[in-house]
Request: fold
Amino acid sequence: MTQAPATAPGPAAPPASAPSSPAAGRARPWYRDPAWYQAYGVYVAVGVLLLFNALFTDRFLTTGNLTTQLVQVAPVVIVALGMALVIGTEGVDLSVGSAMALAAALLPLYLGHGLVPALVLALLAGAVTGLVNGVLVSVVGLQPIVATLALFVGGRGLALVLADGRLKQIINPDLLSLGTASLLGVPVVVLVAAGLALAVAFLVARTTFGRQIVAVGGNREAAVLAGLPVKRVLTGVYVLCGTFAALAGVLATARLTASDPSSLGTLMELSAITAVVVGGTPLSGGSVRVLGTVAGAVLMQLLRATLVKHDLPDSTAQIAQAAIIVAAVHIARERRSR
Amino acid sequence: MAPPEAATPGVRKETGPGGAPTAPAAGTPVLRARGIGKRFPGVVALDDVSFDLRAGEVHALVGENGAGKSTLIKVLTGVHRPDAGELSLAGEPVRFQRPFEAQQAGISTIYQEVNLVPLMSVARNIFLGREPRTRLKLIDFPRMNREAAALLDGFGVRVDPRRPLHTLGLGTQQMVALARAVSVRARVVVMDEPTSSLEPREVETLFRVIEELRGRDVAVVYVSHRMDELYRICDRVTVLRDGRHIHTGPLAGLERTRLVSMMLGRDMAEVRRDGVAGFAADGHAAARTPVLTADGLTRRHQLDEVSLSLHAGEVLGLGGLLGSGRSETAKALAGGLALDSGEVTVAGKVLRRVTPAAAIAHGISMLPEDRKAEGIVPGLSVRENIVLAALPRLSRAGIVSRARQDRVVEIFMRRLRIKASSPEQKVGELSGGNQQKVLLARWLCLQPRVLLLDEPTRGIDVGAKAEVRGLIDELAREGLAVLLISSDIEELIEGADRVVVLRAGCLAGELAGDAVTEPALLEILADGAPTPRPAEEAEPR
Amino acid sequence: MNAPRPAEQTAAPAPARAKAAPAPLAGAPSVRAGTEDPGRRERLLGLVQRQGVLAVLLAVILVASLLYPSFATLDNARGVTVQASFLAIVALGMTLVIITGGIDLSVGSVFALGGVLAAWASPWGLLPALLVPLLVCGGIGLVNGLLIGRAGLAPFIVTLATLLGARGLLLAFTDEGATTYLVPKDSAFSWLGGGTVWGFGVPLFLALALFGGGGLLLQRTPFGQGLFAVGGSSDAATLMGLPVARTKVLVYTLSGLLAGFAGALNAARLHSGVTILGVGMELDAISAVVIGGTLLTGGAGSVSGTLWGVLLLAVIQNLINQIGSLNSSYQSVVSGGFLVVVVVAQRYLARGRRST
Amino acid sequence: ASGCSKPETADTSKGDAAAGAQATRPAGTSGKGCSLETYGAPRLDLKDAVVGFSQSEKEANPFRIAETQSIKDEAAKAGVKKLLTTNAQSQLPKQISDIQDMLAQGAQFLIVAPLNSDGLEPAFKAAAAKKVPVLTIDRKVNAEACEDYLSFLGSDFVEQGERAADAMIEATGGKGEVAILLGASGNNVTTDRTKGFVDRVKEKAPDLRIVAQQTGEFARDKGQQVMEQLIQSKPGITGVYAENDEMGLGAVTALKANNKKPGEDVKIVSVDGTRNAVQALAKGEMNAVIESNPRFGPLAFATAEKFYAGEPIPENVLITDREYDQENAEESLGGAY
Ligand SMILES: Nc1ncnc2c1ncn2[C@@H]1O[C@H](COP(=O)(O)OP(=O)(O)OP(=O)(O)O)[C@@H](O)[C@H]1O
Ligand SMILES: Nc1ncnc2c1ncn2[C@@H]1O[C@H](COP(=O)(O)OP(=O)(O)OP(=O)(O)O)[C@@H](O)[C@H]1O
Ligand SMILES: [Mg+2]
Ligand SMILES: [Mg+2]
Reply:
């Protein structure tokens, strides 16, 4: 050995052997690098779809239309962000749609006390559904899919019980303006989703909690032995997911101008999971791609919009959707280096 | 030395020399690789490497961590496809698309990380893909279990073949992998660090098996960082460094320091000066009062009233055979294993419930034995794996400071000479030895009071091994209490001030100071006769 | 079977154990991994976990029979079992898929498509009525398998796409759902779905036969072992030389075939190719599988557990109807609550086993 | 809770019972008639009978709420011994088991709101085996009347589509571009309401071009989303035909949010007759609502009484659905559900 290992921090002697391989592979041009497609595949797909629409769809590149797409995708993005965190821990949350419905059902019941209490209550309901899921997963040790299945089934029922089974028109102007108002020409709904995306990106990249999420998903056993608060992380992630879903439920309700617990958020779990997975986050946990998730949601939104705008019958639309999803994931697929 | 039981399907002794008439005569190359190149994103793992393997020889493949040994093996066995170069098997050019094809062609491999299916039973793992069938073409489980038990028995492993693999200790798993690889009739058997988690006794068994393979004209590729082993059983050696071929030649007559200098790429003189073993010759000055005491640790079927104490500034060795409960003891101390009864006291304070978090908070760090299952988070970068446990300390108000992380990571990457293309490389892509160093860094950066090291030098190359040993020494000198579990008896003897020996989950004896000698240790290991032990140690009742 | 070392089978007390350890013979050193035979305990736990759902099922049936006299009747049993057969067949394929660590979301759509195709082909006789759906649905499964096994795409996304695709095909084939093909009555095909043997529907026997076959395939053939290996550790399976890609292709094809077959049977029973079937069926199947003790992460599971899981879901539904005139919203709440109780109970029965 | 939100109806579905009552149309009843003897059912007094009602979809939309409520109310009024109710939650297999379950529980007379026109045969067979008469309501099944089931009470969905077309033609003057918000795919109701509308428009107003047909899955938010897309890509649309009220109201919301006047810039016609829609109509935000009356209770029990009294029951008992327009909306609000 050329030197005794330095134990004290501080400027140590230059490394005995370079820590990085001197023979780094020559860089390939990006367009021939599979890793590039894997990292940016979703964005490429979004770009391709935008280009297609710009060329072949009437009135696509108008502010009005683009705003509509953003407004429609906002709730999906919000739910998908929470879902991405859950998936990062190798979990899944089927109950997001029910959490949306619960929030929607609670809103009109408490709007009488003002917007803020009603909002807080609705979000709290989401947090509680998340808490239930989280405890079932982390403490009881159920598989996430069964743990959240119970609330998937029961949550919407509960929402309908609360709402007496029926849709209620919302006439509270504050809540309604949440759905329609815009700031500097950008709808509030979109701003909320964008802000949340940034916040989650920050959470994942820069906070202890965020890094712990990824570690728990990457190797649970190792995380336990490294002394991470695994149960707390798991519970926290489901609580966040439930709360985000409730927020999405509130915004969707505001936009719909009605609280509709029977159909609000149906199939949302599938849309959200799809957005997350198309965005490049593996279902096996251990990584969370926030911007990819947003792009994934946008991709699916654009796809749906394209099909509606070209007035394809449902049969053709579904087949086309299937083909395009496979194609998009195919570009972005992980190529194993071998 | 009795050969493995004749009942074992694969390891049947050929009657007469060259029982198979088609068997190539010793000396003809069975497997030959020419100009192999393999590149991973950011790394050239192999660069124009040639290698040839003769029937009936045991060929050592050596090099530093990350030199490309495992990659070469993976190229030879169809896991990776080479970017350049060609392979030929018995003179025929081959291109393996999948490990399946290599196995069909008669190459049987034990990969570096135990690569079996944890949830499946021992017997199923051994026979996966070639299960014995009944007349109805259904799997004959009774026969399979019987054969598996017999096969393992031949390797000196007594384990119920119906047990799920993951309930076994790592060493036992390694023996199962060995049994699987050897029970296939193969022309070439490749072993990537088969002994890194084996006891001397199992190593002997392994060597016996290798001898037998040699006798059957089977070629063996043998990777190990333990020099003694190489000199004992290998005929020839190939040295790799930084993905390049450095030397191939007979091992006999090759000076040890010369071999090391070729591996490390440094002057022989330099190597000679620094030596290869890293422990200081003299012992440490241990404190009087123990910093950590364990009292009557008990867990059904695994630990039985294990008590021990660790003093600041000493290195306590923990010896034992495979499955004797050493790993369990360390895990229990670090809160990774729920106990039925027992008490852990740290610096006079009794821990009520030992959880990993509580243990860490009290300054206990444990380097787990199974780095793949319990250590690394493969998808995260080197940096994140190093700071994983220290995250809360490197952050303010829940927000981690990148600068502080980088500082810590830089220090440890340099200090442990971790070879990665950058701190951002995924740990899963590192070579085995470097993964181990990353884990060591994870625990060292917590600045613990008590360090429990379960096989810390497993899979680490000679240079780094010396460094790690030096480091252990130095840490103890600085006042850390170190518990050292090692299958390398020499390491225990040289490194530990005191050695406690476990046997089947019970304390079997203790040696201290000058009494720590190889014969004494082997004696306790062998029959567990409790030598005189300190009075305060409880009888394993 | 008995382990070859009876001495170690007995749970000897600790010190005795230490002494009983055979002195290592020269040349045959002994490794004692495990001091007793924890394998037995593990297996017992495994049994409880796999059959824990059976215990819960029996308990629910017992309570229900005591509370509701009309529950434990032959009539009720006939109704419940036949109705559960179709989901059971679909869940059988799902079990195999989940054991490999995958998932098949397309089964609901494929089930519906199978039914429509069978009804369309049924006027030409029994063989076309079975072959056409099997061919098409097996083909969809094959596409799933190729995309997952060979191209390496994520099962969730691939089968989500085929969920849409199969539904699209169905709509295209039925003129956007406007056409319903009918199965001629009194044909041999319609007997497959609607006939009875000893009072119980034919589909029940077909399902049981398939489960028997599925159990043998899974537990007693190399292919079945391969499924466990692929799910337990895909990398290890590759390194051990198993044909991982081929295994995946086969298992998704099998799942498609089973879903199509179940759909065809159902069409035979309903006498028509109903277009609105199968929505959400994948979730029912997945729940049944997971409740039956199969790990969603793959590598462990059993078909018998799935059978009990399907029955448990059917019995819970039946029970809710027995409870009487619950409003549909309360029904959901009750079944959600039931689900929690059942899975938590099963979880605690199986304590100590790995959960995920 | 004060008035920051309002439930859809103040007095739930009971509403103005008289105003909302169903009326059969003489011309609508058809078929040879089915009597107790021909059907082969045992004679029964409804007062000691166990009656089962199988609802098809969740009671989470006004139509289903009103329908179930009406059956329950009428059962109470008729004094049946026990009314069993089940809900198939939009799952056809569940509806089959529901019916079988009720038979196992001893139901003697069944009222079924089928989820689908095809596929309920096993349930009917089970009922027939026990000689339990089945009255189907609101959706007609493809089966033998008086054999598989007793009779059908309900509306003619094709005709509803035709009437919607008439209303649309009137509102738009027979030209322009219309979009159809379809119901759930593969559903008979969707198919019929579409067929009636499209055929009638083709026949009567060839200048009225149908430029988009997209599904809104019978839900308000989906209807809103599709409408938003259409507003952007097909600004020339002057009429929207929504196959149920919820989607129509979704379209109204979408138009309002995009600064268009529903009912004026874009004419809206929908089917159902829920209170919310009729209110929107009264406000001028919609142009016509074709009723599909869900209050089957009185008619169903009256039919049952008649049947057990020995009278033959016609195969189809079609009801007259009303039509709301902007003029009569205000006063007809009591009849809406
Ligand atoms: N899948 C991979 N992706 C990227 N880099 C890899 C991959 N596998 C190996 N490498 C890199 O290739 C180099 C050689 O690694 P290899 O595993 O062959 O080393 P080794 O000689 O076996 O070392 P050790 O003794 O530590 O096991 C290392 O720098 C490693 O980081
Ligand atoms: N999760 C588990 N369930 C049941 N038995 C286990 C489990 N983990 C370990 N064991 C058993 O407990 C015993 C002690 O194992 P341990 O790993 O502590 O031994 P060791 O002395 O460290 O040997 P090795 O070198 O094999 O790690 C072994 O028999 C092992 O098979
Ligand atoms: Mg290696
Ligand atoms: Mg160990």
Observations:
- Chain C touches chain A through 47 residues (CB under 8 Å).
- The beta strands of chain C are 31-32, 196-197, 200-201.
- The CA atoms of residues 171 and 178 of chain C lie 8 Å apart.
